[in-house]
Design goal:
The complex is a heterodimer of chains A (687) and B (618). Chain A has four domains: 3-74 and 221-262, 2-Layer Sandwich (Nucleotidyltransferase, domain 5); 81-205, 3-Layer(aba) Sandwich (Rossmann fold); 270-487, 2-Layer Sandwich (Nucleotidyltransferase, domain 5); 489-600, Dna Ligase, domain 1. Chain A is 31% helix and 28% strand. In chain A, strand 21, helix 13 and strand 22 (470-472) form a beta-alpha-beta unit. In chain A, helix 10 crosses helix 11 (394-408). The two termini of chain A are 50 Å apart. The mean pLDDT of chain A is 91. With 618 residues, chain B is an alpha+beta fold. Chain B has two domains: 16-231, no CATH class; 245-293 and 328-532 and 588-614, no CATH class. Chain B has helices at 16-40, 44-47, 72-77, 170-178, 183-211, 213-238, 295-310, 346-363, 424-430, 538-546, 552-557, 571-584, 599-614; strands at residues 52-58, 63-66, 91-94, 109-118, 121-131, 160-164, 167-168, 245-251, 261-270, 273-277, 324-327, 378-384, 390-396, 433-440, 456-462, 466-471, 481-482, 492-496, 502-505, 508-514, 519-523, 591-592. In chain B, the strands form five sheets. A seven-stranded antiparallel β-sheet of chain B has the order 2-1-5-4-3-6-7. Chain B has a five-stranded antiparallel β-sheet with strand order 14-15-21-18-19, with helices on one face. Chain B has a four-stranded mixed β-sheet with strand order 8-9-10-11, with helices on one face. In chain B, strand 1 and strand 2 (63-66) form a beta hairpin. In chain B, helix 5 (183-211) crosses helix 6 (213-238). The longest helix of chain B is centred in the first third of the chain and has 29 residues, at 183-211. Chain B is globular, with a radius of gyration of 25 Å. Classes of the chains: A alpha+beta (687), B alpha+beta (618). At the A-B interface, helix 3 and helix 12 of A face helix 1, helix 5, helix 6, helix 7 and helix 9 of B. Chain B: Residues 574-588 have a biased composition (Basic and acidic residues). Chain B: One of its GO terms (cellular component) is cytosol. Chain B: It holds the Pfam family Hydantoinase_B. Chain B: This is N-methylhydantoinase B 2. Chain B: Residues 15-533 form the Hydantoinase B/oxoprolinase domain.
Chain lengths: 687, 618
Amino acid sequence: MSYNIGVDVGGTFTDVIVFDEDTHELTIDKVLSTPKNPSEGVVHGIAEATTKADTSLSEVELLFHGTTVVTNMLLEETGARVGLITTAGHTDILHLARAWTPGPLYGWMGMEKPEPLADLVDTRGVAGTIDSPTGEEVEPLDEAAVREAVRELEAAGVESVTVALLNSYLNPAQEERVREIVSEEAPELPVSISSEIVPEYGEYERTLTTVINDYARPTVIGYLEDLDNSLADAGSTATMNIVRSDGGLMSSKAAKERPVELALSGPSGGVVGAAAIATKKGTPDVLTLDMGGTSTDVSLVESGTAETTRQTKVGYREFTSRSVDVNTVGAGGGSIARVQLNGALQVGPESAGADPGPACYGQGGEQPTVTDANVVLGRIPPSVQLGGRMELDRQAARDAVATVADDRGSTVEEAAQAILDIVNENMHGALRVVSVERGYDPREFGLVAFGGAGPMHANALADVMDAYPLIVPPGPGVMSAFGFLTSDIQNEFSETYLETEEDITGEDVYEKLHDLKGEAGSWLASEGVDEDAHSFDYFAECRYFRQDIQMSIPVTIDNLRSEAGLAEIKNDFEARHDRQFGFSLDAPLEIANLRVIGKGTVQGVTIEEEELTASDPSDAVIDSNDVYFDGDNYETPVYDRARLRPGNEIEGPAVVTDNDSTVVVQPDHRATIDRYGNIEINRGEDQ
Amino acid sequence: MSDSQPDFVGEHDIDQTTLDIIESTLSNTRYEMDRVVETTAISPVIREQSDQFPLIADAKGRMVMGQFGSAIDTILENSAFEREDLEDGDVIATNDPYMCAGAVSHTPDMLLLRPIFYEDDLIGFSSQWGNLMDVGGKTPGSMPVQAGTIFEEGMRLPPVKLYKQGEFDSELLQTFAHNTRLPNHAEADIKALAAGTKAAETRVHELCDRFGKETYVEACDAILDRTRDGMIDLIHEFIPEGERYTFADYVDDDGMGNGPIKLHLEIYREGETVYLDWTGTDEQVPGTVNFLLNEQMFKMFTGVFLIMAFDPLLTFNDGYYDLFDVTLPEGSVVQPEFPAALGNRLPMMARQFDVLQATFSKLIDDFSVAGSYGTSPNLVYAGTDSEGNDFQMLEILYGGIPARPGGDGLDGHSWWPLFRTVPAEYQEAYYPLTIDEYSTRTDTGGAGEFRGGHGITKVYTFEEDGAITFQDDRAHTYPWGVDGGQHGQTSEKKLIRTDGTEEELPSKVENVAVQAGDKLVFSTAGGGGLGDPVERDPDVVATEVERGLISEVTAREEYGVVLDDDGAVETTATEERRNEIRSNRDEPDAFDYGPLPDNETLEAQIANERREFANRDN
């Protein structure tokens, strides 16, 4: 008997999924998170879930763990005190923050600029110069100054050290030497060097990213050590895999070195899981919609692979780390609706949060939220207790939404519909950013909806974007934990290249990529992946000479050595540039970066396939009530998802209740339960 | 208010929610236009500094969304074709400020204007302009310091069709690019701007597909009307009727020995109309700092100030333009006559904002903003390297943001939104120079309960022989403090030659020869402070001393904060020192202009500095 476990630590709940490798059964559990000592909640959740699955921790083979610990640390600014050693003359780098102020005009008047994560007091400049672009050392490192700086910083009480020197992306030798000195002078302090964290040009982003790494490191090291120890004490021999922001996995050891890679660990799981489900279903091009209480994450999956980005944003800070390209908007079930002075209705980004929560929670919330609007319109049927926990205060929801109706001179139902239309539009805007603006036509994509509130809003969004089929997977509320189980071990190895096509040959690029592949292979081996499970993807980040874009062009490495050489890359780039921007240039191609992603396949979960049964879903009907859609009330049946079987077909309008979410099927739509247990929604034939 | 209300005022036959959706889509589109341009242009000024400006207008040419002074009527009037001659797929290009009423205010700014058609009807326009690296003329970068006419500032396109019915006129673009020092940059950047306007067209088409053309057009009217309503409320609430408020401030000089140059603004309200009168502003000057201020643009600036101060969620657009009545005296530095040179209009543009802020500080109770670092300082370094390749770098620099209501000014940040510094590693990789220092100038922001932002110092070592051209300001006049806050410090420029000799340079110079190994120390001005410095939290002062942002001397002398050997606040000594400061000073004026000499002396200083610079041994 062996089991794999996916664990997703969120701000409020920790979700656990246990997968039985023999029976392919999934067991889901949810426990409260323990933000003060996060490993406690994880251990507790695993213990509870394994008991529920009728097994024990010692039977668990693989653990897949994603966490919002780093995300929250950044948002709440609760990380470590970081010492920064940089190049003399450039110590104000984080303070000056590239001079950026927000738009529009006069944006500086209200700008709130958070303090740098490494204080100026804890920043030291040291002499030493690397020439650009040759990478030659033209002024030696002032080692005595480094030694003194480390002693001072340690005495001042810093908990970790970042080394970020100018031009280190061309030659890391001085940074490496500083790291050695730090280790000699203060062996217990974690130290990161920028050329390892982001081996690319751009001193501000490289410094910021490395400082974030060290800001998170002491906590993450402590957390993962606690977790490893507690699990070992409880008899676990399972291999721990930590989920990265890009949806890949790394070992606990690697995570302690590079916690910045965990900044979006949580949301990536849902996207990877959605990609796996959509691929299995044979619709590998999908948009994903993860709508929770305060925000919604959307992303795009093409050919079964989630789009990734090099720029990761958490709160105010944007840094260079690979992550699933998740676009977040402040639109969730708790988003508050308010009518502005000029009559415009605004929904979010302000949220009622969990306390007091929406008015319908009956915890004293009076402001109208998206959830209240859903309650008013009957989309959360009276038979449902939200999250299985609360009795809904329907009158409070109505009273709250009535304030909007009064301001707009409409009926309460119209006001509720308007709140939904606006919040849907905000999500629609976010989906457009990841699709239309990047040159993808949403009509060629399906939509996978999850998160507590996603399945309630997704049908309206699919309709406006014409993105079908709409897929609501089983367990939409624990999609991230499921997604972790579908992840592979993965890391990327990149190098700044900055060469134009005139100066290089296909063979040159081949050599570089081949070297990067070597690095990736060694890393995979050090992560314990057997060589026959290694696979590699190659990319050239391209642009016209001196442009700012970096279009990631997939490279077939062996073709580089053929006659075609670089032509294949250039043609692909020009086609994409033309598709996205509508023009191409008579300008040389520049390859800004070369990148290899090394993957080691891990089999965490198998998606079960079931036989289709009869189409009649009437056994699953548990209730019926009035639901308001676009100006009319419809008598709408309520189904219990647990009783629906593969093959069942439901005509809209319908509401399907699940233990952690509610699925709304709009009029003129048809839902079917597919052989994997997904609810698939399409427009009816008459549309 | 003008005699008749604009035609968009009234009831609108459109569902509220649809209106909200169209407004938010247009708002997103405006940012999408910027992103398209930023990612596809190749000039660092556009890529890294976000120096471009989007607009979506209705069929009458009124800006519905964007950041722009729309002058579509003027552009069409100055073109060879009529409105009826516009066709689907046309894109008009111009970079002549005098042909677009100053919608772009110097020749490097290239403006593209695309009429948007739907079902054969003209339903609007999209437009975008951006700062090209070079458009020819007497200096690299096309922003000479010493030019008497716009003819010295490069190639000008009158409004002409760059695309005709979607067909790109490559010969026209070639002709233009041929006249610039960086033809490839010009071509790519102009195409990027066209792509930006195309993005807007696509989105507007989608809105028409989704909601219908009539609804879209109605929505544009309603959005304008909504903003107008919001602005009427703001005007009533914050601009008192009856009293007249004035403020004057000075741009240092025109780079040819003339200055200081006075900007004078009077603001008052009668009924719903706010009068903004620049009478009293100095006449246009011989040099290149003249600023052809677009009337619509100034209305936008004024409205945006009120919106950002008091109702940041309100969309700004042309809807409120009939509520502002602007007087721009012909032949003044804010309305120069053709063919006055315009290349370095930035100090005048920035000072115009300072004056607007100051006048509002006077007329709105409990809302004051101090004076700024005073321009968008910029530097061009150009030449031919030892391998025979031409190089030309253009960079914008930043300084001290003024202290603002409820907060300190930011050190070394940009007063114009969304600009970013060019990475030193980019500059060192692509141009023959090194960046030896990029740091905050301690003590240069004006002291105050809220401190003015500090200027910055950037030190360049040039690695090839070449020439530098730069412009800055606030080298003679000070960024003023307000409500007891103190003035900030001035800007400074210094060349350190390879033999160690140091040379102070004026704030505006052109084509100064540099040799490999020479260093330029470029220091920008701080921002003014706000409120009484001895009211500043002593612990904040102590922290800033520890961070090296304030010297211990300034802490004691200006803030009255005495620190012990560990840098902690000595409470009793601080209290005594603060009392001493209070008792030894006069009641502060509303504005602290700094130790300015009288006007005649300043005029002589400025003329003399230029004379000495012109006669220096070189």
